[in-house]
Amino acid sequence: MDSNNWPECMACNVGGVLVPLSDFGAQGAPVHYKAWVCTNPECDFNLKIRNGEIHLGEDIHKGARVR
Ligand SMILES: [Zn+2]
Question: In the chain, where are the structural domains located?
Answer without folding.
Answer: 1-58
